[in-house]
Design goal:
With about 140 residues, this protein is an all-alpha fold. It has 6 helices and no strands. The protein has a domain of about 100 residues: Serine Threonine Protein Phosphatase 5, Tetratricopeptide repeat, CATH 1.25.40. The termini are far apart.
Length: about 140
């Protein structure tokens, strides 16, 4: 039997305890929108065909941005600049934009983005349903 270092064993035991302790805690999602993230599609993903290096670089800048507001604005700019991109790239950029605006609570932009959901032709039915629910939340919170 292979020996496991004591520090590694301590880490495993601690993480199991923390995970088990969190399982029974109630959550309150009515008070705030949970942090959402777009599907993790790498800009180098095999399922995206980049037409130009500029298109790839623009998407990469959106993909690596840490600030949610800037990331959403960058994705919106990508969608305006690269309208003829690969459908998967457009769908990924749309998801980043929509969820970024939702995460920062910019409800007007969430509603504006939802009006252009047709740009994201590769969204799954589950994603469309989630975006529809977020748009409904945005309508309530913005008073529209």
């Amino acid at each position: 039997m292979k020996r496991v270092p004591w520090l590694y064993s301590l880490f495993i035991a601690t993480s199991l305890t923390v995970t088990a302790g969190c399982a029974n805690r109630p959550t309150t999602q009515t008070a705030s929108v949970r942090t959402l993230s777009a599907p993790a599609v790498s800009p180098r993903g095999q399922n995206i065909t980049w037409r130009t290096s500029k298109e790839y670089e623009d998407f990469l800048m959106v993909y690596i941005e840490k600030d949610e507001g800037k990331k959403a604005a960058g994705a919106e700019q990508f969608l305006e600049t690269h309208k003829d991109s690969d459908p998967q790239a457009l769908t990924s950029a749309y998801s980043i934009m929509f969820l970024g605006y939702a995460n920062v609570g910019n409800w007007a932009k969430v509603l504006e983005a939802y009006d252009h959901i047709s740009v994201a032709s590769r969204l799954t039915d589950d994603q469309k349903s989630e975006f529809r629910q977020l748009a409904a939340t945005a309508r309530q919170r913005s008073g529209r």
